[in-house]
Amino acid sequence: MKSENMEYFKKLYEKRGGQGAPAPSFTTDWPWLILYGACVYLVVFFFRFGFADRWDASELWVNGERILATHDAYFWLAKAKGIGSLAGYPLAQAAHFIHSVTGVGLGTLGFWAPAFMGACVGVICFLWGWLISGKQGGIIAGVIGSLTPGFFYRSRLGYFDTDMFTLLMPMFVAWLLAVWSLNHTRFSWDWEGGAEENSRQSRMKFGLWQAFSFGVLTRFCLVWHIDIANVCVLYFLFTTVYVLVRGEKGQRTHAIHELGIFMLAAFPGAAYGQLWLFPSLYAPFTHLFQVTPFIYSTIMGIGFALLYLIAVNIGRSRNSSWVKNPILCGAIFLVLIYLVNLIVAPFPAIFEKLAGYLTPTAPHGEASGTEALGPIYPSIVQSIIEAKRVALSIILERGLFEAWLGGLALLMTVGVVIVRPVAVFLLPLIVLHLASVKLGVRFSMFGGAALSVCFGVGVYWISKKAFSGLPLKKWFILGSQCLVAALFLWFIHGRYSKIPLTPVIPALHAEALVELAAHSSPDSVVWTWWDWGYATQYYAGRNTVADGGKHAGRDVYPLAFALTTDSPKKANGMIAFSSQYPGEGRDWVGLYPARQWDSIPRSKLSETLDEQISKETYPARPGQFLVVTWKDIRIAQWITYFGNWNLQTGTTKQAAIGSYDPGKLGVNVQRGAIMTRNGNGGLVRDIAVLGSGAVERKEYFMNSMSPRLLPVKRHLLVNSVSKQCVLMDRLAYRSMLTRLLIGDPDDPEISKYFKLVVDKLPFARIYEVIQ
């Protein structure tokens, strides 16, 4: 019975065109690949380009450049502009090079680059469609693959970040490995074998050089971000297992040798540092030739890959037994795995990365007790939007525009893998996408392109079947692919046209930072909330105490404390004490007062901290500047969470905040009354209306006697320019953040410790910390 069932499935598979199907040939298809690939690139680029006019409003420009749309963009541009070292930051180096050669402004470059790079993902999706089902099979995938919500939201105009590469490069490397694997595996699930023998023998002649060249290409892909290296290492190991399982008899040893060549050409230096071979030669070699360890490892890796290639090529031509010996082949491969450091370094880094997203609240360290040393620090992860967990329906929607389309694409993926086993190389990206329900919404950027490939291939196969009897079926098939792609473009253009623009900071905030450069020396340090750290470095040209790469609880606590306390003296004291401990390293950012606190018995932390920040005098230090902004007011809930953190007990008290966008809250300034859209409301104690360069404050003493007085959030701040409103409790209202933004700078209680140097109300004020 088993045998009859198997025979039935074999015949069904063969009938559907699966068994014995030839793999696409680059030799015959390359003109079409260039034509279709160029068309896909241009369509996707101009689609992305078409949203630029939404950024033409004057309030989105500073110094002749548009304000960018993501915080991390300013990290790379600040490096390219001269803050810190360029070494080790490829995206910053690329921006600096393009800026130097073309004269294009860094901000302009950062705004447009995502359109150029995002369109490349469309080309890779097209190539995947071609690999699975031929030159017309990738048209739909190419057009929509880089426009799926999960990726598009992170690669829109102004999103100058490594996300431009984090999907592109792994998907390209997966495609290279899939193409290479066809030298040693069958394109379809053939049970009988032998159908592709002649073709395979022909392709094997190029297998060695293909592995080497693909390895060198992979090396270029890896350098942009460590996460890309992590994914590509996993893809390499996945490919090793794949060819061992599906490789033809007699082909596995050849495949393993070629994987060894690929490994040497791709990974040393580009992924996890030095090649573990002759380490004693590193110092004299790098000193003699004035090259970095990265360059040394690159030269050594490519050089050994070439030597290995020549040795295997000679061995094959002479039919040497060592080339075919599986034990020797496996031993060489395992030694190379060790020397190239593909197990020891990547997996701990990968597990640590996943743990950070799987555990939103970091462990608090040692249990409380008299013998415990150092503070209990808060975790910052839970306040990061990227780590937010969302429902599966939203993840599917981010994969292919609508939840039902995402689910349909998943079903099509199953069918595509059944018919074309090479499509299994897309599965890791889809799995990573689905893991967003646990890892956080950021990971939803990975699977949309892969789902688009499988969806596009499925639609292509359906159209082939539907038009199979027509005389001009090729044109009908092509036309149907273009029509479906055009309908998708029409649909998603309407959706994306409604997405709110997300400038990192308001124009007046950016102008205040530019002006700060004239009021501060180059060694000055700026105290601004970590979300605006990179933008501050770019616009002001000054280092900050925290930023997107230095925002652990131990880093942001001093800053949050200074913004949260209701005492100007304590805020000044925390800044004065912390500024005695500059960061360490070649390219330091921020301060490191934790080096002092980590050695203090936990039971004495509170009293010690009070003593440290209550001194009358502190050692001389570079200028310190504190920035308070309207955007800080809107996230004061989190700032006070960290600022009120008790380092001794690990507890905190968080402010109550209600933030309202324009039109969401009705305000009666005469009565001190507010009302939301759903009819809820009440009376407030006071209202502060922040206008251009001034604050109008109104107090309603009689409201305190009314039963309609709001129970907690009794203080209202209104930004008359942005039309936004914030309701807050006493904790937030009495904080230095609020007092410095809306208060009188000449108030003796404030002016004794802080001097206003830049005033850009209602969005930003910058104070010099008086020493």
TrEMBL record:
The protein, known as: Oligosaccharyl transferase STT3 subunit
InterPro entries: STT3-PglB_core, STT3_N
Record domain Oligosaccharyl transferase STT3 N-terminal: where: 94-446
GO molecular function, one term: transferase activity
STT3/PglB/AglB core domain mapped to chain residues: 523-649
Biological source species: Pseudodesulfovibrio piezophilus (strain DSM 21447 / JCM 15486 / C1TLV30)
GO CC annotation: membrane
Keywords, in A-Z order: Membrane, Transferase, Transmembrane, Transmembrane helix
Record field: transmembrane: 30-51, 109-131, 165-182, 222-244, 256-274, 294-315, 327-351, 403-431, 443-463, 475-492
Pfam families found in the cross-reference section: STT3, STT3-PglB_core
Cell division among keywords: no
